[in-house]
Structures are given as C-alpha cells and as structure tokens.
C-alpha cells in the first residue's frame, strides 16, 4: 500500500512521499500509575501475534528476560531505596521511544527499511530489512532486536496499523490503570503536566516528563517520579543522544568518505592524463649486467651487516 | 640471458593475490552498498540486501585469510630499508615520472610497503571489528558501546583500505608492466632495473647474496 | 464488597491490606488510580511484602503475616482514645449503647463459655444483649453503663497499645502511628476510607475476625454505607461471588438461606428461628420475610409438588447432622475412607487445598473420582508420577478417574457475579473444543439418569429427586436464559404486590418484595429477584450513564439486592435523612420518600423521624461491634497467632498456652502432628498469586507462561545474605508437610521484622505452578500449607505458616 505520510526514510537521500499532513501523536507512559501487571506485554503479543519462548526465571520479575524479536515491550522492575530510606519499586515499560530523530533510521543502510511517519511513528519495514543490525547500533535506547529465525529487525510499531485507522495502540487499550495513554503529542504533554502537579503534591518534587531533547523529543514519553534521575528506571538514559560514534559513522563521514574515494579515483585519472603512464623504455635496458652500483646518488643509505650495531651509515 | 625476463611472482603468489583482489572487490562493493545509500544498488550484485549482509562478512573473513597468506609470503620484503626514506622524500619526483635523484629500491618501493602495512592494519581492524558487529553470530557477546565503536572502526578501516586500494590499482595502471607482473608473473629486466633496482641486482647477481646493499633488518 | 468497584473512585483514603489489588485485581484497581488522580485520594498499603500495589502507594508499612487484628485492635484503641470517631453515626447506627449480658467475660485470651477439650465455645449464652421486659434489647444511650457495647469494646481494645501492637505486627511504631493518624482523618463526615482486602485476610485461622476488626474500624469512622467507604472483599474468582450467592456451600441454600439441621424437623420452628423479630422498636428486621424467600425457593425447585400440606417440600430437604461438610471435612472423611466417590467440578483440590500430600493420600482412597474441567488439572492426574513434582507410586493408586471435559466460561452464555455483586451477562465467545460439554449439560444428564433409576428402582429419599421440577424446553440441556429466569422468579398464580399492581401467573417477578410465602411465587435465588424481569434481562444492560456523577451507574448490568450498589446506604444520610456531606450524597429523604443516586437500602416510604435504623437486615436495626454468638471465637476480634507461629507465644497472652492460636480454629485431630515448630522451620511464609497468572489455570496458556515462566520464591536480601543465596539460585523451601524447589528472587521488598524482641524473616511463595501446563513444571505450593483453618468459614490458613529455606 502506498503511503504519503513518510517524512523520513532510511538510506534515502531524496524526499520520501510526505504530502499528507498529520498531527504528531504520542504515547504517554505514567510510571507512577503503572502497577507492572504486564497486560501491555500480553496485549502486544496478542495484537501483533507474537509468542516468545517460555523462558526461565532469573530471580527477577522481568519476563521475558529481555526485549526480543518476539517481545516488543517489556516491564522492567527496579528496587530503589530513596534518600529517606523508603523503598520504591520503579516499574518501567520498555520499548521503542519513537524518537523524532531516530538513531535506527539514521544507521539503517537499506532504503525504506525504516521510515518515520508524519505522526511521528518510526516503523520498521521488514520486507526491506537486510538484517544487518545497524539499527541496534544506532538506537540510543537499545531497543531493536534481530530475530534469530528470520534475521530481520523488530521493535514496537506503536501499533502503526491501529493508529492508521484511528485506534489507540494495543497496550494503551488494555492498560487497566490508565498508566498508558495515547493522543496528540500536545495533549499528552498537557496530561503529563497535570500528573506532575499531582505527584508534586505527593512529595515527588522532581516529578517530570521524559521527552528527551537529545533525540529531538520522543513519541513515547514517560512521567517519572524522579525525572532528575531517569537512570534509576532500569537504566533509562539520562540524556539520550545518538551516540557520537554513530553520528560520526553515519553523519559527516559518509559523504566525506565517498567524496574522498571519488577524489582518489579522479586524482589518479588526472595524474594519468597530465603526467602519463610510467613506461619502461626497452632501449634503456642495459646491454650488460650492470654491477656498477657505485654511481648512485651519494645520499643513498647503505647498510653494512658487518658493522657494529647493524645500523646503516652514510655513504662517503 | 641478458634479455631474459625476470619472474617477479610465481603462480601461487599470483593466484593468492588475485583471490585477495577478487574478495576485496566483493567485500568492498558489498560494504559500500551498506555504507552509503547512493551505493545501496551495489547490493543487487550480490542478490539483494539480505544476501549482501549475509555474504559480506564471509567474503571479508576469506579475504583476510588469503591476505594473511600473502603476508606470510611477503612480510620480509616489506621491511623498510635505508633508501626508502629518501625515496619517500622524493615522492614528488616519482609522481612526475622523474628518476633524477630517486634512489634505487628493493622489491617493493616504500609506497608499496606503506600500502602493505596499511592493508594489514586495516584488515586486522576489519576482522576484529567485523566479528563484533557480525549480528548472526557474535554481536550478542558484546555490549552496545563496543558494537558502536567497532562499527565506526570498521567503516574507518574500510575507508582507508578502499582508498589504499584505489591508489594501488592506479599505481598498477600508471606503472606499465606491473599488472603484467601480477598476471603472468614476468617483468622485463629493464622494468625491474627501473623500478626495483636493488631487487633487480639481487635477482640478477650471480654471487652469493653478500652484497653491500641489502634489505634492512 | 459492601460497596463496589467504581465506587472506589469516591474514596479519600484507600487502605489495601490483606490483599494486593493491583496484582490480583488490576482491572478493578483502575478505580484506585481514579480516586488518586481525580479525588486526591491517598493510598496506604499494609502487607508483609512490598507488593505491586505498594509500588503506587503513598505509604507502605510492612506487617508480619497473620497479625492484622493486632494492627486493627490498636487502631480501634487509637480512634477511641483520641476520640477520632464519627459520633453521630456511631451513636445512632451501631450497637454501642446496647447492654450485654453479665455472663459475657473475657479473661486471659478466652471468652466465656470455652470448652478446652472440644476446642470450641460450647456455651455462647453470655454472648448476647440483655433483653428487657418489653422483649427489646436494653440500651444506655449515655454509653456510661459498663456493660454497654461501647464500654466493653473500649476496655477490650485498651490492651492494644501501639507498643504491644508493634511487638506483635513487627511494624515500627512510628509507621503505625502515621497510618493511624491518616486513617483517623476519615472520621470526618465528609471523608471516607475504603478498605480493600482479599485472601490475605480470609486465609488465616482468624480470617473472619480480621475482617470483622476492619468492619469495626469502618463503623467507628462512619464509613459503612458511605460512597467511597465500606469493607470490600475483592473476590478471588470472577464468579466466586456467584458461587456463594447461589449457596454452593454444604450448609447453605441459594440467597444465603440455610439448610436445616437434624434437630430442626419442625418446619414452622425452622422458619421462626430465622425470621427474626425486631430487637428494638420501629426496626424493619428484614429477615422477618425469611419464609417468603424459602417458600419461593421451594416452589422453584419442586414446583407443584411443593404444597402447603407438605410444608413446601420441607421433608425433601436434607438435614445436616453436623454443622457442615466443607472441603476440609470432606477430605478428612475421604482419608478415613468414609467417602467413596467424588465429583470435582471446576475444582483442582490437590493444587488448591492445603497439604497436597494429604489431599493426594485422600484421593487415593477413593473408588472413583470424576473431574469436570476445561483443563487437564493436576487433580485429574494426581495418580501420575511426575518426577519430583508429583512423586507418587501410581501402582498403589486404585482410584478410577473419569475426566469430563467442560466448556469454559467464554464458551457459553450466562452471567458472572463480580465482587461488586453485579450480575453481568456475557455471551459465548467461541465454541468449546472437541467433546467439551457445558456443566449444565453434564449435570442434567446425570440428573435425568438418576431420576430414571429412582423411578425404576426406588431408593432412599427418592422423592428429593423425583419431585424436582424440571420445566426446561430441552430436558438434557436447560438454557442459561431459562435458568437465569428461574433464579429471578415468576408468579405461579396471579399475585398483587404492595402497590396493588397484579402480576399474572407465569410472568417474571420484578423484585423480591413481591415474593409470597403462600406458594404463589417461585424464585430460585431471592437476592437475584429483579435480574430478569418482564422488562427483560437486566444483567445484559450496558448503560454507564452517571447522572449524579457519583459513579453508581445504575444502568450497568444489575446488582443484587434490588440493583442496589452500596449496601446499608441509608447510613450515608444523617438521622434527619440528609447526606453527611454534599460530596458524599448517595440516598436521602426528599420529604416523601427515600431516593438519590443509588437504590435505597431501606424501606422507601419510612420517614427519618420514624426512627427506623439503616441496618435493616439486623433485628436491632443497627450495625454490630459486638458480634453476639455469630462468630466461632468470640464477639470481639482478638489477636491469636497463626497455628504455626514463628515466635511460639501470643504476646497478647504470654501466659496462656490455650490462647496462643485461635482457641476455636478448625483443626482436625490428625493434623496436630503435621505442624512445625520455629526451631525447625524458622521463617514465616505466606502464599499468594501473581498478576501474570490466574490460579492454576493460566499455566496452560502460552502468553501467561511467557510472562512468568518458572516457579520462584521471594526472599529478603538480609536473609538471602545470611543464607548465601543469590537471585536466580535454586532453593528448597520445606515445611513439616513437604518441600518445594524454586528459583530465588532476592528482594529488598521483604524485610526482616522485629517481633516480640526477635527478628522474624518472611518468605513469599507464589502458587501458580504445577506438573501440568505449558509453564516450566514446578511443585504445587500448597504442599507446604497446613491442613487447618478458620472456625467460621473453614478457610485454610494458607497465608501464615512456617518453613525453612536452603540453597540447593
């Protein structure tokens, strides 16, 4: 199906079809309301028809143990003792953040394997995915996973199929406590602001919204009790940016390197044109074995293996 | 005897070289396909994106293996000797096809030697970083920071390698007779004397090799 | 629930204790988050573990398992001594002024009338009110009489000082005070606290009394009958409320009517005993209508065969020779080979009942066992050796097991009753697989065959079967609609109701007020009367309109009784009939009648000045702090230790060995030897569910198995360090009755508690795994649990017992 709402497309240097205008959407995950029931995980599995393996308990509540090609969202549980010595059980629904400046898309070498819709959804098109895993390298949140079955990269689609027909993502639909809400990004920010007022009234002075600038903002945002320390939440990056290594790799170095290679070829070509080939004139060829090595430039260094130190010396 | 050509590379050496060359071309083209969108079309040469992704690391590893044989064979000839410094100092004359003041050099000129060591370094980096970013087998053993660094190093090393090979290829085109050396193995005496005089003397000397001028080290 | 799910949003304070609502009732828990978000409500969680509910609480405090009465007793003491009670409510709507008989005493942990040999209170005569010459209970409105309930209660709980309560509970005194202070604010008429509990309160040998202590707190705060108040049992199965409503207990009939005992051969005396006359002037004492409910039930069951002449088939009813044949009793009898065959319908006893090895041994004594279930339950394979998970010698099990696959709830139409008492109609979502049949189909087939044999061959008590009314269109498969209509009830003959309207014979009844004791009405469950009227299936309604903004949603499904959403809601208005607060308006007197946002739980046309009190089901018209003779262990809740106590002493009564654990708890003689001591099993253990699973069902579902694949136990960091256990290690947890092995989850969420001047560690043991299903197979957790329980409900003490833990 043709799309007209693609505002960014991986490995594509011309404008993608982007005529259609859409409001930016966002999913707001309120970690302060989340009870870690994993209904979102189940709804995700149900809607997207994913079945991960029945794994093991690793001594935590995190199951499956990690995100995977068949687990696009995952509750991560962290036990945190706050400054007052009170225990907090921080539960964060992990998954794709749908960055405004998506590192995966930047890194992806395959044209159209990763696209960004005008509404902000970053979507993988596995038809075009070549399985290189560059998206994982590019992602500041360590989200995409390569399937070991088909070697394609997978992650949360923000239920782009549902959103496209006016439905909320499956996880939002199922969340029993309203900890996950969905709407226009503006509305979600407004809702978050109300939540933060409530949280501050409950003593969470650092409550705030996680919508990190480093990636241009995200279309999945968190309300955090401790917005000053996102790291507490199972290592949510404090200030996520596309890694400078990735930036270097997929940023300036790409055109520069290409330019340099082109220049090298051209330089050779013009060298050939201007200076010409280096041919051996057969008549220069000495008629007798030339053993007169003594007529070389005096600057030539010679080496006498019998001299002490084994170093060369200046020829007189 | 005097006009008899000199065997610069034997059949095994030539085969090895061209295996490396072919594998390099394939690895480079497939790598470039993944490096820049403008070159992604190259992936079609390998049967599409996924095949490019699948084949590239195998080609790379194979290239490294064959290159390693070349290294074993030629590493001694690539040690720098005394004359090399002057030769490099006079590289501008070399580039202008001038021979005045350019010192005689051994089997390989310092440019070739630099290339040799650069290739070796790049290939090592490519191999090691390539393993780290080889999703199908090894990436799960490395953390994301290592993978990111490896990715960058891989691209950098590949870039240097490609540039070096461009120079290498052009040098072959530019220095007439050298392609032949790698194709059929033989060079004329004149060619040898002109480009690799010390080597030429070495191989044409009838004496036992106790010459004054020899390879360094 | 006295209140209901959506009403939680009206609360100002939510106390979750003896339950883990976020974990076990995540969908209902949304109303807690609503209350927090839109009502600025605070959430307090008291639990042995820092639970998922605690993760969103404003305040959490740990408590030693099984010591909730000490906490509540201390709270009652705090409220009384700091005068943090809703005076007008307490004075008018409770029994505080009632005078208790002089024979009632409480000494050294025991109430009057205790028979130590029988381990029960055989003489409860003192546990009652003084009755005056006018036949009414004596009261002292000044509350000065030392024998009035108020003074007795005050005296009883004066022993529960914060320090002593803390010594029992292991909760630090300052945490306790902080919570009590917060709770005490809800004594203001405009503020309410709701209490949400579940099996964390019921599954103790003192479970019923824990819940009563909570009810007493709510009465002191004036929070019963109030929006956002009440004592709310969050039921453990989607239709377990329906089970009790329909009387699927050995001593009950539908609608909380009771079976007669052997001694009650006289029908009129049977009714008279239950149709209590008012104990105070002007009170309704609604159970006076008992006869109407009973006769209508008998008409539904026996139709034309129930006549005035045969006392409406009174002789068809079985009479109990003992108080009841609850499951503990049945399995005890089974073990003694007094039971030959057993029908297990939607029940997985070797997983669900305590002491799995005992249950397995009992099942092995059966000649036959029929398991009706949608799933391949462990019980249906109790004979199969499943390695360490079920290490039985199959050759020694001679029981014939017959498995009858049934459809599950989603594969049939019908109604479910939720914790809110809402009857919600549901529609079949899919056909049952294979040869699965509905429970109704199987039971009908059984009935029809039994009837045929009784017809041909006769037998003892054949009439009970032969006289049954079976009016269904398809005899072998009555439809859910037919059964639902029968529960609601219909006119047998033309009847006239109180308004003078006539209901023609055959028409559906509109309300239980229309029921008659002359045989002209039939109703299979009087409290369901109104659920399927002439206007159709009220349970199928899905109108969530909320005209008063009070979250009562009277158009959504149908709530028993009479579509009433909050029980005792007359108490939400003051004596003059005005709501205590505009924010908490529920029902009120409008000058002519009671009405408002809910269906009044009251006689609609009785004006406030008539003096009728809100608790119309009680003969005294008021709520009881003093439970009379209704409870097995005494009129006031008292703390007793779990039968397996980690401290070996009851700090409330350190010198009375008889009062360590519940003196009237349910313990079979053969069980004493299976109880462990703290010296061998030093850790207090508690079992529970996880949100990822539902009982023993969802381990058969791949998605649930993925989200929680393998059995684990939770161990506090401190104990784990002592024992050298790291997260992910395998550990063996053993009790006197057996052991399980599981992965260790090492957590900060369980901390050691200081109890009675010693450190008590607690171990958390989830219960979902077994030797069938698609999760990684595991041990049945109830292997560890003692086979004893509450003396009122017979509920096992699954939440408090002793174990040892070792790293494997």
UniProtKB/TrEMBL annotation, chain A:
Gene3D superfamilies: 3.30.70.20, Single helix bin. Residues 281-316 are annotated as: Disordered. Residues 303-316 have a biased composition (Basic and acidic residues). Pfam families: Fer4_11, Form-deh_trans. It comes from Pseudomonas alkylphenolica. [4Fe-4S] cluster 4 binds at residues 108, 129, 132, 135. Its main location: membrane. CDD domains: FDH-N. Signal peptide: none annotated. Residues 25-53, 87-119, 120-149 form the 4Fe-4S ferredoxin-type domain. The beta chain is an electron transfer unit containing 4 cysteine clusters involved in the formation of iron-sulfur centers. One of its GO terms (molecular function) is 4 iron, 4 sulfur cluster binding. The gene is fdxH. This is Formate dehydrogenase iron-sulfur subunit. [4Fe-4S] cluster 1 binds at residues 34, 37, 40, 175. InterPro entries: 4Fe4S_Fe-S-bd, 4Fe4S_Fe_S_CS, FDH_Electron_Transfer_Unit, Formate_DH_bsu_Proteobacteria, Formate_DH_C_sf, Formate_DH_Fe-S_su, Formate_DH_TM. [4Fe-4S] cluster 3 binds at residues 96, 99, 104, 139. Its cofactor is [4Fe-4S] cluster. [4Fe-4S] cluster 2 binds at residues 44, 156, 159, 171.
From TrEMBL, chain B:
Residues 8-183 form the Cytochrome b561 bacterial/Ni-hydrogenase domain. The keyword Electron transport applies. Keywords: Cell membrane, Electron transport, Heme, Iron, Membrane, Metal-binding, Transmembrane, Transmembrane helix, Transport. This is Formate dehydrogenase subunit gamma. It is a multi-pass membrane protein. The chain crosses the membrane at residues 20-42, 54-75, 114-137, 149-175. One of its GO terms (molecular function) is formate dehydrogenase (NAD+) activity. It comes from the Bacteria. The keyword 4Fe-4S does not apply. Pfam families: Ni_hydr_CYTB (PF01292). NCBIfam families: formate-DH-gamm. GO terms for cellular component: formate dehydrogenase complex; plasma membrane. Belongs to the formate dehydrogenase gamma subunit family. Its cofactor is heme.
